[in-house]
Amino acid sequence: MTTEELYDKLKLIQKIKCETQNLELKSAEQGCPKRLYDSLSSFSNQDDGGIIVFGIDEKQDYKEVGVYDAQDIQKKINEQCLQMNPVVRPLITVVEKENKKFVSAEIPGIDLADRPCYYQGRGRLKGSYTRIGDSDEPMTEYEIYSYEAYRRKYQDDIREVPRVTLMSLDQEELNRYVELLKRGKQRLATLDNESIYELMSIKRGEKVTLSATLLFSPYPQAYFPQLCITAIVIPGRTIGSLGDMGERFSDNQRIEGTIPEMLDEALLFVKRNMRTKTIISPTTGRRTDRTDYPITAVREAIINALVHRDYSIHTEGMPIQLIMFEDRIEIHNPGGLYGRITIDQLGKIQPDTRNPVLASALETLGITENRYSGIPTIRMEMEKYNLRQPEFLDERGSFIVKLYKESKNDYEDMSNDEETNNLIVFCKTPRTRKEICDYLGLNSVTYAIQTYVNPLVEAGVIKLSIPDKPKSPKQLYYSVEREE
Prior knowledge:
Number of strands: 23
Keywords: ATP-binding, Helicase, Hydrolase, Nucleotide-binding
Low-confidence stretches: none
Mean pLDDT: 91
CATH architecture of the largest domain: 2-Layer Sandwich
Protein name: DNA helicase
Number of helices: 17
CATH class of the largest domain: Alpha Beta
Number of domains: 4
Distance between the termini: 33 Å
CATH topology of the largest domain: Heat Shock Protein 90
Strand order of the largest sheet: 15-14-18-19-21-20
Helix content: 25-40%
InterPro entries: Fic-like_C (IPR049514), RecG_C_sf (IPR038475), Schlafen_AlbA_2_dom (IPR007421), Schlafen_AlbA_2_dom_sf (IPR038461)
Largest sheet: 6 strands, mixed
GO molecular function, one term: helicase activity
Domain Filamentation induced by cAMP protein Fic-like C-terminal: 428-477
């Protein structure tokens, strides 16, 4: 960071008066903070890293108090960075403003293969942190495991299942799979079935693998009760909405069976709970039936969840969630994005595969193409239906797909409404609830947020600075570019 950039950063801090995902503020008027390792860890563990600015007192309404000694604080910062594993190499900048010194430490994000960065004094399990909004939160055991699993290329889809035997599998389905494997593979076709079982990870030694259990067991949930799909229909737009009779769910089903069976049942659940509209072409007069959502897009979203969810022991107690709201479908998949891919890269580059054996087996069975075409297909199908583009979220230990019923034109009309558009422009600078209320000329902050802001948040036009803590008193609302 140049000195000019640090001056600009100080101006921005006085404007927004808050910390952010990439910005931490420390007073340091009386000395260097002794506990920097949580921010050093959390910033190192995110791709964009982060910046710690010293000389701002958050408790005094973000007053610029300056640091006690610019030379000494640099030394103390470096001492704490050397206590991290891997060692953190900050880029330090010093400026003077109104006879006060300010120091910034840019913390670079480390390579995924080197994460988590942690404080050696507390060890990996207790010294690893992640950044959530404006706070540094201890990493969960699962989050730490996820880095380890990627680095060491663990294959949880072929871990052994002690209670399952080869003879307990559906022999007819297993034989059909083996015959499909042999087609067009001359060398494989010459092997006996026992050799194929071992070679293709149906079993390892005398133990059947998880993928074989999920594909060929008559009832996989006997061994893993939560490796299923819980499907519900909410009579509203938020969890907790009640129907006319006070019901929480309009429909509720626990979907079990093998992966192909769960896929079929989940699709039947969605079809049962969405409307089919008859559309008459103004040019040809032809009548066509169209469902609320393109079923191909729904199928791709469900199969992606079944194939790419995390099957480790850390998440085997978490089912896939299929939630149908009044205006959208959400599919929550245990395990966030795997490997180096980011949300922005989805459907554009070939990702790492978390469960390669399972994905390959489902390709052989004709369930999926295994060509990384799922996300592009979802986007194209939503476009064909003239629906708003899907939303993909990567949250702590969960990947979420949102398919909206709202038409693309309605979405654009809402964003193009003059009053709405003015509010969106106003929120290009992150705003507090009170600032938005004052801008709208209203007396009630709650009414302003519920009536004017929340619909834009649901539409993805306005984002929260602390999405995991929507009721945080430090919450800011800011507008984002609309997807074309």
